[in-house]
Predict the structure.
Amino acid sequence: MKKLKEIARLLFECNLGIRPIARACNISASTASTYVEKFKELGATYKEICEIDEDSLSDLVSPKAERTSIKVLPDFVHIAGELKKKGVTLQLLHEEYKRDNPDGYEKSQFYQLYHDWKKKADPVMHITHKAGEKMFVDFSGDRPHYQDPATGEMIGIELFVSVLGASSYIFAYAVPGQTTESFIECNIKALEYYGGCPECLVPDNLKAGVTHACYYDPEINKTLAAMAQHYNIAVIPTRIAKPKDKAKVENAVLQAQRRILAALRNRTFFSLIELNEAILEETEKLNRRPMAVINKSRYDLFIEIEKPALKPLPSDKFIIASWTKAKVHIDYHVKVEKTYYSVPYTLIGETLDIMHTGNIVEMYHKGKRVASHIKMNKPGAFVTENLHMPSEHRQYLEWTPARIKLWGQKIGPHTKTLLEEIMEHRTHPEQGFRSCLGIIRLSKAYSPERVENACKRALEIEAYNYKSVKSLLQMGLEGTATDVENKKIIPLHNNIRGNGYYREATHD
């Protein structure tokens, strides 16, 4: 010890006590006390001590037999496993180590020994993940294939890989593509495979999960956000330009490529289901394979430390939904996959968030659900909730085709026939009722005879709508004789120029 002569100087030349010597030499008071007693036992002067070399002096003050003790090396595999548990720190583990080994390594040495071991055990990832904390997910760059039995075509698909942070327990699953629906399906399969939910889901900034990648505030896909809420998981995408954030899953992907895809390279599969069955078998082999250094498998670590920390799965499975945006039409309906669904009429002109599954369609305005319908896979159909209508439109609900015909008959037979044609040519009954109501109300502004004649003329020119009848009445053409040769003329409307246009206009 190089400080021995300095201790002797402070003792014999400066006449300092044990505590000042300890502070001056940066050693503990107990250590200083031990050396002071040894120097006093020697009976040598400070001058005589200075003439002795360092090694000899060390042997005199602290003989090797006394100062050398066999220290128990910490169980680093056990320490690494304990650190993955919530609330466990390296300081706590050192205290427990010293309790069982009083002559063992002090804190600084203990810390250094563990970190040296950690670098050798895991040279890629030095971050300690707590049990049940994170599930890392990504797609493999290498794509598996299966053969179409009908055409013989090799179909390339995507390989999803997930890994739990503490145990490195891997799950792999093949899907047709990297769509949002496929990505959500993969995450659900992974959670079911693990039999529980971690606290966080850590995806890469792939488009299927992250709408807008941002270092500080990434925007999560609505479907992924809904899934995370269902399973009570926080979504924390990896940071841009931070490769260590995804080192865990990149290593898992590498293992999947080497231990799963490589093992299946010489086999031919004829369906996605058959391929996934083989992938699952190889995944089980990989997880039960002992890992280097710690001599434990991923499965062992999963059962020992990870599985007890996972939250239980919810009782019901998450239903995958698609999200889109749509503007409310003037008739208070929004279009979802070629079908029209009603929303409250007060939202006309507003843009809504639309969530739809295989069974339901839900509309949201500023985060609040405003309408919900049973999904109807019928192009052009209207699904209308009565309460969504304005009060003046609800009267249509009391109408029936028979009642409309009766009202039309009161004006005349041609009116009745025109109303029948209008209802027959409309894809949605309410649209037909609205047009019929307009024609019937024309009898309040014009005589029933004129309305009847206008309806007759409209039938002749096959103009089955309210606007044509109104235009005929406004232009006074309801009584004009119809030329059979010109029966199929362009329906009358307000834009048609009359003969007065050419008399009055002045052309250069």
User: Anything to note?
Assistant: The chain has a mean pLDDT of 81. The two ends are 116 Å apart (CA to CA). Residues 399-503 form one domain. The first helix runs from residue 4 to 12.
